[in-house]
Amino acid sequence: MELKDLFLTPLYLGIFYAIAYTVRPKVTNPFTKKYFIPALTLKFIGAIALGLIYQFYYGGGDTFNYMYHANIIHDAFSDSFSNGLKLITSTSPDPNISKYTSRMFWFGDNPEYFTARIAAIFGLLSFNTYSIMALLFAGTSFAGIWAMYQTFLRIYPLAYKQLAIAVFFLPSVFFWGSGLMKDSLCLGALGWVFYGFYHGLIEKRNLLLSAILGFLGAYFLIMMKVYILMSFLAPALFWVFNENNKRIKSALLRNVLKPFFIVIGAAAGYFGATNLTEGDERFDVDNIGERTRITQTALYNRTKEDGSGYSIGEIDGSIGSILAVAPQAVVVSLYRPFLWEARNPVMLLSALEAFWFTLLTLRILFRTGLMRCLQLISSMPILSFCLLFTIIFGIGVGTNSGNFGTLVRYKIPLMPFYLSALYILQIQALKSKNKPVLRRKSLATH
Fold this sequence. Notes:
The chain is mostly helical. It has 21 helices and no strands. Helices cover 78% and strands 0% of the residues. The longest helix is centred in the last third of the chain and has 32 residues, at 414-445. 43% of the residues are buried.
């Protein structure tokens, strides 16, 4: 960060808040209006805090590597507009831009350089100022997660307070999902995919807008973290078939067709995910077992000496070995690090969140009962979707991370969905438990 950050950031913040207050009436109602500005403010705080942590605590990191590449692109624009444009629009070697690309260690068709190009575009709007670029990343992410929140409210408006906590106010999510990082853009993109899927394929309203936003979000995920979209696709298609099955009026026909809907949804999700990553050396289904083994081993070995590494069992590169450690992978993604495993302030923050998730999960299970919880999950497609996505994504990040420092960033896309599912389950369980009492009282009054 430089001196210009101190002078320009307050000015741009004023502009961003003016835009926010102008947009707020169009995207809120009397119940959600009060969350809009506080949620956006937390994103802004998270964006600046992440930069400060990386600068003064870690002494560098990916956020400044993105800035480094954006600076080079900015230099190219200063020399020649056409050269700057080539760096933003092309990933192929070109003699005209070689003096810039030779200084870049990320130049090419990869997620890191894609993110750097987005940062460079934001740099053109902000005098290439780090803090303002970070705020633009935060605002872009916020637009997507506000769409996520609105979608959850369309499905279950009763829980508008609790859903606001799940989507906006989890410390790890607004910290790691707000700064000049891939994670911020991916979180926002996932919100748009969720919005597009629900409004386009389930509600079947605003089809053109839903398709545009959904495909735009999917494009960003494909370019940066395709495994998020892979994890989302199968549960989402299963959700669509589940919702359509639920709308069949005849109970007999509904029960007869339900297994077919399950099979078709699972098959469509599988083929969609495999075709999405076919030929990708990192995420192709044929390579994913070996890739997981390599990534997990490398990340674990890098950090095992400082105590932040974790092991969930041996992964030998086969899909079978991943399935064998899947339950532990889900546990580590949702409920670890344990409090006694925290080795620094960042890990402690994650450990406190994981402990809260553990307590909330156990509380719901004990108060509602396992069988009643399973009945509610099977009867409410949104719960089935959220928990399936959580499990699939949890297996993916739990087996790949190898250390808690990486895990805390990797797992943020599942956290709003898991916590939203817990809150909806909790409210629905209380609602169904109180129904007989309310009915008896109404009968007594008559």
